[in-house]
Amino acid sequence: MKDPYDVLGVPKTATPEEIRKAYRQLAKKLHPDLNPGDKRAEERFKEVSVANDLLSDPDKRRRYDAGEIDASGAEKAPPHGPYYREYAGGAGHPYESQGGFADFAEGDDIFAELLRRSREQARRRPGADLHFVLSVPFLDAINGATRTVTLPHGGPLEVTIPAGVEDGQVLRLKGKGEPSPGEGPPGDALVQIVVEPHRFFTREGDDIHLELPITLKEAALGGEVRAPTPTGSVMLKVPRHSNTGDVLRLRGKGVKTRRQAGDELVRLKVTMPTEPDLELDRFLADWTPPAGYDPRKGM
Amino acid sequence: MLDEEEFLKRAELDRTTLEVWIREEWLAPMGSAPRRGFTDMDVARARLIHDLHRNMGVNEAGLDVILHLIDQMHGLRKALAEALATLRERRPQ
Fold first, then answer.
1. Among A25, A205, A211, B56, which residue is least crowded by beta carbons within 10 Å?
2. What number is the average pLDDT over the span B64-91?
């Protein structure tokens, strides 16, 4: 790390005014946006900014002079975001100017022809694509939906969410982007879908997974229980002697895409009553598991 | 595309200054108030104006001239780059 006084070219006794003057002189020469063709300008400008940040703050300067901090302590000068020059070379932005060369394009030499051609290309250039993120409830992503989003500028935009859309998928809405700066077609709107999690459904590929609590009695004796699916509840037959972890398959109740339909996989979970049940206690006190039965065998 | 709130935060601007800058044509957002949209380029341009104004002591009249010349310089750079690219394509192998 260089000595900030050396970087700004001022003596250690420089007044704040002298420091500011030195910084301005250098910044005028080194600011990347005033030197768009100089790739090293950014690095050198940063050095000067760091030195200025340290010396223009009386407290930091005092601590630096006293040896309490070194020049690297100031390296965390607030980062400068991308410079204007990173964007100004792009096409079709509102700050484009041909005032510097319009006269060259009027001749009949080769340079004029090239300029006319690049102007023509600029005129036909399509508008920029618009990117945005749309958060979609889990069930809307499974069943499909229509949502109206409001763009930062311009009118509302209707987005049709196809059934079975996946998290992270990008929908392209043709012609819904920025208008062309010239006479080209508008750009597209690119909508990235973020699927919100559901309270009890999860998705794996085209299958829906669900953990379904059942009572001890339903597990032991079997029976019909109501099971939610993305398109509404259905009655599910729980077989006799079911257990926690058993998976029942509801065919075709998963994600329906245009090509195929997935299944819903219901994982049973035997659940004890939340309130103490004296009758159940009494019954179980009299119950003796068969000899040799040990659910923890092999652990 | 950023909305006005987000833009003001990122560009470290207040609303009154923004109106001045737009009126001076230093910034040109998409659409019109209250539905204005801003790009990352607008943020970088606002930062450049801050650099010139706050740190380098350029006054408003000077800013106007500098921004205009910078835009022309980029126009020229692009025209030159495109002309060179076309020339390179045409050069016989």
1. A205
2. 85
Mean pLDDT of A42-48: 88
Q: Which residue from A250, A244, A235 is spatially nearest to A215, judged by alpha carbons?
A: A244
- Asked if the model's pLDDT at residue A76 lies above 60, the reply is no
Q: CA A294 to CA A289: how far, in whole Å?
A: 9
Nearest by Cα to A272 from A281, A264, A259, A263: A281
CB proximity A79 to B under 8 Å:
no
A140 and A177 both lie in a single domain: yes
**Counted domains in chain B:** 1
The tens digit of pLDDT for each residue in B12-40 reads 999 999 999 999 999 998 877 667 889 89
CA–CA dist B58, B52 (Å, integer) = 6
Can you tell me whether residue B86 is helix, strand or coil?
helix
Mean per-residue pLDDT, A127-150: 89
Range of the domain at A109: 90-124
Nearest chain B CA: its distance from A112 CA (Å): 9
Contact between chains at B41 and A87 (C-beta distance less than 8 A): yes
My answer on whether A168 and A231 are in the same domain is: no
**Does B70 sit within 8 Å of A27, measured CB to CB?**
no
A257 within a domain of the structure (yes/no): yes
Q: What is the ipTM of this complex?
A: 0.87
Identify whether A14 is part of a domain: yes
Q: Is the pTM of this model over 0.95?
A: no
The tally of domains found in chain A comes to 4
Of B4, B38, B72, the CB nearest to A100: B72
User: In chain B, what residues touch A96 (CB-CB under 8 Å)?
Assistant: 71, 74-75, 78
Mutation test of the interface with chain A: which of B35, B40, B56, B91, choosing the one with the most A Cβ atoms within 10 A?
B56
